[in-house]
Amino acid sequence: MVAKRIIPCLDIKNGRTVKGINFVELKDAGDPVELAQKYSNAGADELVFLDISATLEERETIYDLVKKVGECINIPFAVGGGISEVNRVEKILKNGADKVSINSAAVRDPLVVKRISDAFGSQCTIVAVDGKQVNGKWLIHTHGGTRSTDLDLFEWVQKVQDLGAGEILFTSMDNDGTKAGFALEALAYMDELLSIPVIASGGAGNMEHFHEAFNDGMASAGLAASIFHFGEIEIPDLKNYLIKKGNNIRP
Amino acid sequence: MIAIVDYNAGNTCSVINALNRLNIDHILTADPLDIEKADKIILPGVGHAKAAMDNLEKRNLTDVLKAAKQPFLGVCVGMQLMASMSTEGPTQALGIVDNIVQRFEFDSNAMKVPHMGWNRIHKTSDHPVFAGINDGSFVYFVHSYYMPQNEHSICTTNYGISYSAAICRDNFVGVQFHPEKSGPIGERLLKNFVEL
Q: What would the mean pLDDT of A14-24 be, rounded to a whole number?
């Protein structure tokens, strides 16, 4: 069977890695290429680069970064943040990325999912969704979680699956930053609804949380940022822990 | 010199990067003459089998590939095109191996499609491209269509069923996984191929 994946996420601003807690007090965390290489050597199964640059001008630097990462690392990586059209996707993939992740743009125009998937294949089309419970209902939020919509999370992920998404990156805003664990019930429900893999994001605080995401949330992969960046969990330790608990993990 | 077939089928950049890391000479080409005189041929590919096959035909590349006498490596969709046909489209393919590539069909949503991520390979026969690669090694897959296990399988993987992770017929080798994205194991395979 296919192994459960561990995915560090690197936030990128103007071509540099930044670290912050809940997007405040962003600090420069150095060269993304070096960090990517470090994670790859430590056994990360895949990487996600999320461009949080504020301006279009800053976002142009992502292509150079993608090129350098592709030259240096030999595991798959995805790029997200500010991607809204096929020509940008093409440029990112041609520079060496394996997948792109789209979020707000899909909400604005769901057919962009189909256009990207038709042009480059569903295997490289991740749709990232930020969900938050409002009056007991999971609703989609956009623009880094700052704008609410009335889209039901579970209806939305089924819709983008039908439009050609190959994978869902689900971040629970209720869990993000809490370090209290992933949104297990929502993940498990999504797993039942969908035939494509789901990456769990938001809430990882310890190694057990990944075990829960894989076994209770039925996620295909677990994504985290700060716990890896701040060295709270080392990837080899996490993988050994998960293997000992009976998970199918690439050592 | 290795010819990487340029037919607008996706991940050529990743394959080029991997060969560069290994200091292996290569050209990216859609010229049948270049391909014919190359020491080795790599047919990469991701995406849609019919679109990929149409692109090969448009560039008049099918004959030169079928007639290749030098070591040939098909990767992912590049391997699927070695079959006689694929139900993705559907499309006729190169017919190097007499088999039909088909979609993963599972009764339950518990088996996700695409098959995406790291999975183990199991050798069914010894082939020099797998020299030094242990049985049970993890490599990276991403695909929704597969070639069933057959007499040309040299490696299998289990995802709901046991299917061809790698095939060989004479000088033709195909791998369903992505050696260029499979860490040190994948690099070993590419190195082995170059040394064939």
A: 72
